[in-house]
Amino acid sequence: MDEFASIRHWTSGRQSEEWQRERGVRLGIGDDAALIDPAAPIAGVTPPYEYVLAMDTMVETVHFNETTMSYEDIGYKALASNISDIAAMGGVPLQALVSVSVPRQLGPELMRRLYDGLYACADQYGVAIIGGDTTSSPQHLVVAVTVTGAVEAGKALRRSGAQPGDAVVLTGPVGMSAAGLHFLLAQRERGADALAGERVAQLVQAHQRPAPSVRAGRLLLARETCHSLNDVSDGLASEAWEIAEASGLAVSLFEEQLPRSGSMTAYAGAAGIDPLEWMLYGGEDYVLLGSMELGDAAAAQVAFHSEGLPFYIIGETAAGTPAVELIRKTVKGELRQRLAKKGYNHFE
Amino acid sequence: MDEFASIRHWTSGRQSEEWQRERGVRLGIGDDAALIDPAAPIAGVTPPYEYVLAMDTMVETVHFNETTMSYEDIGYKALASNISDIAAMGGVPLQALVSVSVPRQLGPELMRRLYDGLYACADQYGVAIIGGDTTSSPQHLVVAVTVTGAVEAGKALRRSGAQPGDAVVLTGPVGMSAAGLHFLLAQRERGADALAGERVAQLVQAHQRPAPSVRAGRLLLARETCHSLNDVSDGLASEAWEIAEASGLAVSLFEEQLPRSGSMTAYAGAAGIDPLEWMLYGGEDYVLLGSMELGDAAAAQVAFHSEGLPFYIIGETAAGTPAVELIRKTVKGELRQRLAKKGYNHFE
């Protein structure tokens, strides 16, 4: 198959023209470029809106390998991680372009499975796949995705708006993806694993099929009290550093208030590992980290809980040189520990 | 340097906020996503406009290697090839996102040179760099670019509009990029080359720093007589096939009317090579291939020439099964040769 036949094989018949039209698409896959109507009404977004654009790439051996992810998972997660960037601005995802660089030994059917996962994610989040490109790759699979979205003009939630004295909030537990990856890599080394079970399945799911927090982002934007927002892609510490640097203030996180999922805690206990490293540096959790006044955070927590969504108040900001510290309660009293900025490198 | 420090090192201070604002940008590099005002006036484009989106990737050893391209060239060409897709729709390029997957052995200074070339192209074509991402790569450099543009609503030039009886037109010579690549690869094998000189410099330039045909695309769109349009990225034969298949008709190209640059002809003669293969299958010429009624093509030719731009009438379309043939005049009379669809693989 040539490039065009391959792309047709992977993409045709997946999304109807009418369905794409509702997402602003005037011309999808098949020409030199796609066409979008920037004045099209977008369901749930009050006009006038701004366009949101983000691009994120997944590389074999850096972000995944054949042990940790199926081809369906690779396609799903490549789009999900991009949608998360739209969620982190408070936006609604709309369209995506996908570029795959494919090793020659990979047959078209494996790539079709990658597109199966990609479209599963696209359908779940209402994203129209409108273009991209396919090239060969000398050795490793690379999947680059660009995603577009819409957000009410002037309302997007940025990293840079945190105020001193804000509460630091988090929309879900962290560390589950890293725990799932730990299990997958340990499983490879040890064969079938006695630790496997229902709870591990949740962790593996968190790693392979992460759920971007679109609904949480929209709720936070609508409340109009959120000062800053980031998605946790590179790890909690790294994202807190970004807010600290972009907003020019110091962030303190309270260890005992960090949410720990039961499945992660159980797995870490069975494996004899302190999960704090996963929680602070694991990344790829795709929950949202933000800041707002403490009273607004308490109100947001009530609103999130009434919708069945988790919401945690995990720290506070203060005027000062940008930095992130973890406050731990120990038998010897309160311990303040400066957190490194560096994200976690999954395969080192 | 971490990812964010690297990105700042490569991108900060390159384009002013005001300059980006004139291209619709409300928030550029530095957050989870960029923000664009889809109602911003765009110089030279009559509202209402549609948004144009394309994505194209360059992979080391597939599209370039250290012998054929400097790092500045890689950055320049990665953006130029994307701008060409906007030109092929008759659009004006506006913004770009850039994802680089970088082998560990590549230092930040080589990447800075890549960004030097990227911004040189961005400045030349007025494109705002608004985002992207950086990952490591196990071995090969991969540069994926998404470019946006604007085109008058409903006016974009597509592949699918060719009519039977159209003249096939071309906005510049083909085969120069392939000739330049041939020289670069031959030079590697033979050391300093006796064929080098002024004329070869033009061919090398065509390969390393291609010029997307934005002005030609805008002229064709404004004339409102162009039925179909493609850019010559994969080779003349391949692009003619795309128009033939998308429009459901047959394309004939007249060999003696194909434009040959003097430098390409001279180099091919000195190297003892028939350049027809380069012209038909070389690709990466980034001129435009289209179709329109013969009388309109003649009028367009006059208009292009009066602006100092080349314009060639090189073939015709006819009702029939999609196919592309080359009509050659030989001593034995007219020879009709069916052209393969396959594009050229540069390194095979």
From TrEMBL, chains A, B:
Source species, domain of life: Bacteria
Name of the protein: Thiamine-monophosphate kinase
Source organism of this protein record: Paenibacillus glycanilyticus
Every PurM-like N-terminal domain range: 30-151
Classification via Pfam families: AIRS, AIRS_C
Binding site for Mg(2+) 1: D56, D133
The keyword ATP-binding appears for this protein: yes
Residues annotated for Mg(2+) 4 binding in this entry: D32, D85
SUPFAM superfamilies: PurM C-terminal domain-like (SSF56042), PurM N-terminal domain-like (SSF55326)
Residues annotated for Mg(2+) 3 binding in this entry: D32, D85, D231
PurM-like C-terminal domain segment(s): 163-320
Broadest EC class assigned to this enzyme: transferase
